[in-house]
Design brief:
One of its GO terms (biological process) is intracellular protein transport. With 106 residues, the chain is an all-alpha fold. The chain has 7 helices and no strands. Helix 2 packs across helix 4, helix 3 packs antiparallel against helix 4 and helix 3 packs parallel to helix 6.
Amino acid sequence: MADDGESLESWLNKATNPSNRQEDWEYIMGFCDQINKELEGPQISVRLLAHKIQSPQEWEAIQALTTLEACMKNCGQRFHNEVGKFRFLNELIKVVSPKVSNSALW
C-alpha cells in the first residue's frame, strides 16, 4: 500500500513512471487524494502535471494525461479553477504546437 506521507511530486512520479507497464491507479488516485488534502495542492499539482504532460517520453506524457483526467473527475472546483487558468492552458498549447513561444500566444 502507498505511504500517505508522500509528496505530490512523489505520487505523480510513481503514477507516471515510464517503466510502468500499465496505468497505476493506486498512485493516480493517491495523487488525487493528496491534492485534496493540501492547501496548495491544486496549484502545485497543476504545475507538476504540465511538466509531465510535456515529457519527451510518450508513455510518461500519456500517463500524465490519464492522471489529469482522474484529477478532473475527483479533485473538485479548486482543481478545476487552476486548470482553467491561462498559465496551464498555455502549457498545454506547447504540447500541440511546440514552436509557439509564450509571447506569441496572447
